[in-house]
Amino acid sequence: MLRKQSIWVILTTTFWGTIILFGCSSPQSNLLRLSSWVSSPSETELFKATLDDFRRQKPDLAFKYEPIPGNYSEKLQLMLGTRTAPDIFFLKGMTAPSYMSFGILNPLDDLISQSPNFDLDDFYPFALEAFQYEGKQYGLPKDFNPYVLFYNKKLFRDQGIDSFPSNWQELEMMSRQLTLDQDQDGKTDQYGFIVEPSIEMVMPFVYQNGGNFQNPDGSLGITDEPFIEALKFYHGLYKNGIATMAQDQGVAWNGDAFGRGICAMAISSGWLIPFLKDNYPDLEYGILPLPMGKQKATVAFTTAYSMPKATKYENEAWEIVNYLVGKDGMESWTKTGIAMPTRKSVAKANGFHDHPTFKVFMESAEFARPFQVQYSERGFEEVVVALQAIFYTEKEPRKAMEDIEAQIKKYRLVGSK
Amino acid sequence: MKELKIQRILFYGLLLLMTIIYMGPFLFSLSISFNAEQDVFSWPIKLIPEKWTLANYQRVWQDLPFGQWLFNSVAITLIQTLTNVFFASLAGFAFARLEFPGKNIIFSVLLASLMIPGIILLVPKFIILNEFHMINTYAGLTLPGLVTVVNIFLMKQFFETIPKDLEEAALIDGCSYFRIFWQIFLPVSKPALAAVAIYTFQGSWNEFMWPVIVTTTREMFTLPVGMAFLKNEFSVQWPLLMAGTILISLPTLAIFLIFQKYFVQGVASAGLKE
Amino acid sequence: MKLSSKQKQQARTAYLFIAFPLVIFGVFTFFPILFAFFISFFDWNLLIHDKPFVGLANYFELFQDRVFLISIKNTIVYTIGVVPIQTLLALVLAFIMNQKLKGRAFFRLAFYLPAVTSSVVTSIIFVWIYSKPGLLNYLLSLIGIEGTDWLTNPGTALFAIMALNIWTTSGYFMISFLAGLQSIPQSLYEAAKIDGANAWQQFWKITVPMVRPVTYFVIVLGLIGCFQVFDQIYVMSAGGPVNSTTTMSYFTYNNSFKFFRLGYGAASAIILAFIIFGATWLQKKYLPSEAY
Fold this sequence. Notes:
The complex is a heterotrimer of chains A (417), B (274) and C (292).
Chain A lengths: L1 H23 L7 E4 L5 H17 L5 E3 L6 H10 L6 E5 L3 H7 L6 H6 L10 H5 L2 E2 L2 E2 L2 E7 L1 E5 H6 L9 H11 L14 E3 L3 H10 L16 H15 L3 E3 H4 L4 H6 L5 E4 L3 H8 L5 E4 L9 E9 L7 H11 L2 H8 L9 H6 L8 H10 E3 L6 H17 L3 H13 L8
Parallel strand pairs in A: 1-2, 1-3, 8-9, 12-13
Antiparallel strand pairs in A: 3-12, 4-5, 6-12, 7-10, 7-11
Helix pairs in contact in A: 9-10, 18-19
Chain B lengths: L1 H32 L21 H9 L2 H32 L5 H11 L5 H13 L6 H5 L6 H11 L5 H8 L4 H12 L1 H17 L2 H6 L8 H12 L3 H21 L1 H14 L1
Chain C lengths: L1 H39 L16 H8 L1 H32 L6 H13 L2 H12 L4 H8 L14 H26 L3 H9 L4 H12 L1 H16 L3 H6 L11 H10 L4 H25 L6
């Protein structure tokens, strides 16, 4: 009888053992991994093509491209905290301060200085600075993208408008002219403009109005007069019925609404160009710098390649990054205008300054500002919620901002002044 | 008699209304999944497609690691179902039929743990698995659900209804307890085992919160997690989304249709035993 | 002597039989409960190496956190709205199913289908139904009402998700009630019929009191489920718009796995657990589980 029991013990332990063995071998391959977010199929295809260019040059350096769908920043941080992060990943300039302050990224300075041909001075300084923290470089900017104004040429023609909005008053006026109820059923079926309750969309107007999210002295600027005024103007376009929102129309995002002709103007950036080309190839559109307020300003987004502190493949990863932000890689990635090169030499060599559409982006870069603050993502979330309250529940803008001010102050990043 | 007739009509009217409410959403999503028109944006919506196609199913299958997700879901569900059936019945047998010191205390502690809301375990379980480097592994996905208290409880309740004389004869013949369990108890416990199996199957197949937290890369997703991410990727492309939802519902539906009887027994007995 | 050695052997076998489950529960249930309290006293950030002890600071912060207070309110509204309706609906469905009826298996399947389907699947289907150009607004337009975008409207989002929850769980609890109904002796109904009671009276005077133990069970399970609702919120609204669908479990998830403040998240889960205990205790006190 005892013998039977011991057989039983053996059975259990083997079972247990196989489970553990099975569990520890995951399909997460033992290969260098590179991750990006997923914004549009066109962008993913383009990025894959750039990677293929690298593969042709270095066929023996094996790596895997693993886009992360869904909430990118959330998943990426989870990966970084659980040692499952990819060895190279996109890092948004907007959220870079929190990543850098947590000390989870690999500083790149040594790798850069070991590569004599790298030429750091070739980069636009504003793009490099977005990824510096306590004197170290934690990411190398792959591209930048300023917000510009897209307009639908046909809809402008239909209303006999032959000029373009150059300031807030004109933006409002033309939006009104372009807002139409064509079938006279009392429901607007074409809007002049489209808004979005997101802080990135509000910030260009705030900057134009001389305001700030975080003032140079570190204090919060979200209840200062210039901020509130800009927010009220932006919200006013929606409130007065001359701008719409994507969800009001049942479309996925602003670009989609613009492509369908639901709105005649939209603020967007380089990523809209390949999207329109793929989905609305017949659309006639033009690109303008943002209309100005008290001053010219726009928000520029910049994205970098970064590495986690705990990468097993530091040198291999660097080789890939070195190619991607090098002259060839950057040229391959930016040639369609999906984003602007962060290397002056690449912009110059490829005629970005003379190109009919790209030049608008390059001009915008001169008065563009990055949007970066020393607050954690919970702070951003508070702002998003406040903006939703303004746009969905008609909460008074000043009240909405005052209500969250004290809460946001709590989410100041650790270690920031 | 007339009153009875009205009652009858009312009753069937109610029945019909309820059926439409409960089945309608599935039928419409099925219909949309065959819609060739990607743009269901047009108003008014077409509930019945003008052009039918299977392309949405093909695209969901090809564009996404659907096969990998299916494999993960099947593997996890299979392991958890097998371990639950085996270990829950074994433990249930011990609690129902064997005498040992501390039996009542252990059992009441287990029962008390049923009162613990799962949410409180979320963060500590995550930290523990992270310490063991088990985040984003099959171990992390399966280990916490290998056996559950509810199943032990169900099996214990069932074994207590089996007459004692069966095992007494076997004991006199010198059979080990494991043999009694294996050769006498298990064969007569098929309905209860089936209820446990189906219960567990349904639970792990549909489990969402835990895999969302424990998986970080696409390859490790289970079907529900993959679907939730699909929603971000395809946002308002309803025909594709609906094709995906139909695909992941099919296995549960099939299992349910085949084992309907045991399903109902399982839920019912869980209710009555309380 | 002989007996004792037999007992010993029996005990040894029993421990062997329950060893595996006990290890699993030890590691994934009992230890984590204690660990949860421990974590909640620390500023435990997944991404920051230093994890300073902060005492009760997480708890104090929670009660000053506007979003947390909103989440308590939302959770209570959710539970109070869902539990009674789903319980009543489940009972009505079970009552229907318990009548002499052709195609009973079909109807049982129809009502039970939402309950066995993955919550992610039903959520996605309902995101479509509730969208601006969706099914619900289409039906409303047939009777001349212009609907809103149910899930991005802060006034309707929570109620929309509640309706989905009722739809999915009522079929599940119907099965529980059905078993309870079938155990009611037919003679009771016959007696009532002789006394001239109609179907409605029979339902309230016999059925409802006789299934009280099942009702108790259904309400407890319903409470626990509603207090911890997560899947639907995650898929359909991510807590928005304007925090109108942030429930306590979603708040816990968000702070733990989006902002990675695990200590803070653990503290909020502990408070949620105490609220659930409180609710079940209240129910036990005021809603007796015994049948007449």
